[in-house]
């Protein structure tokens, strides 16, 4: 971590927080991504506040509001400059940062950021290289502004549509797997200690557990952190969750419940009595949004209301 100091500082200012402070001076700043970053760690609000103050000290051009006297610790937002000032503002900040921390340190600052979705939400992220990632509800992916040809799946389900470039392959880290595209569309699903990759177009090289496998359309691989297992999947089902169809292969009801929670936006849990029970098949989400009790007959369980969610349990 790169630290900056000044009289009255209460802690270090790091490159990641400075990067966000600089981004938020842009009139077209992504406030949703900024909010997701803040919520990822309670300490980030304080780090961001110190970064804004540091930028103000270096440029004398960004007004910073005084911290509120109450216990409300919402971060200080650097007000976006008028569009006409944007060019010289960015240049001034860059020049100040180079002078303060050195060109090498600033150019090597952490430019990674996380894109996240709430349960029940879907979001498509367009990448600078022409690729895109569609995230299911309750999912997170880590991206890098300095390397647009890479991504790290942190949680949930997502579909990658990759623009192929043989000279610079797109790489994805998902659990213990490393994926390298060969010009492709592929789906990554995580949960229950497993990572599953399925290819609908092109091909993917999958590395993990000391092995390397090529996946072609209709092929999938599942990793539990110890071994890789090949599977077949109907190409039409891959990424089907975007249209409200979840397909499971050798999943436990714990995994099914977690996936339903992410995609429906309603808490679903499996009781210990049925949590390890296997399930293979497809589930349509639209009917469940109207009446989650339909899960009972479909899964052969009893489903009961539990606070604001639902619990799957053994029939009485």
TrEMBL record:
Pfam families in the record: FecR
Q: One MF term in GO for this entry?
A: sigma factor antagonist activity
The segments labelled Disordered in the record are: 64-85
In this chain the FecR protein domain maps to: 114-204
- Identification of the protein by name: FecR protein domain-containing protein
């Amino acid at each position: 971590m790169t630290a900056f100091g000044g009289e009255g500082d209460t802690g270090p200012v790091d490159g990641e927080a400075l990067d966000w402070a600089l981004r938020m001076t842009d009139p077209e700043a992504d406030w949703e991504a900024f909010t997701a970053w803040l919520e990822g760690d309670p300490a980030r609000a304080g780090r961001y506040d110190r970064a804004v103050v540091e930028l103000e000290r270096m440029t004398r051009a960004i007004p910073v509001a005084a911290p509120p006297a109450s216990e409300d610790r919402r971060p200080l937002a650097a007000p976006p400059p008028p569009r006409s000032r944007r060019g010289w503002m960015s240049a001034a900040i860059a020049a100040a940062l180079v002078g303060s921390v050195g060109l090498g340190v600033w150019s090597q600052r952490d430019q990674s950021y996380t894109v996240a979705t709430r349960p029940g939400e879907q979001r498509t992220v367009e990448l600078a290289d022409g690729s895109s990632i569609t995230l299911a509800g309750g999912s997170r992916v880590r991206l890098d502004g300095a390397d647009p040809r890479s991504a790290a799946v942190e949680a949930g389900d997502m579909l990658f549509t990759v623009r192929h470039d043989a000279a610079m392959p797109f790489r994805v880290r998902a659990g213990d797997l490393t994926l390298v595209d060969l010009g492709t569309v592929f789906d990554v699903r995580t949960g229950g200690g497993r990572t599953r990759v399925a290819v609908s177009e092109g091909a993917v090289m999958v590395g993990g557990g000391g092995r390397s496998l090529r996946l072609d359309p209709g092929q999938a691989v599942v990793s539990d952190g110890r071994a890789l297992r090949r599977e077949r999947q109907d190409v039409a089902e891959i990424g089907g969750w975007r249209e409200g169809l979840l397909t499971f292969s050798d999943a436990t009801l714990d995994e099914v419940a977690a996936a339903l929670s992410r995609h429906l936006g309603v808490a679903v849990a499996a009781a210990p009595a049925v949590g390890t029970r296997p399930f293979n098949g497809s589930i349509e989400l639209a009917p469940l949004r109207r009446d989650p009790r339909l899960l009972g007959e479909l899964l052969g369980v009893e489903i009961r209301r539990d606070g604001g969610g639902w619990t799957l349990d053994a029939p009485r």
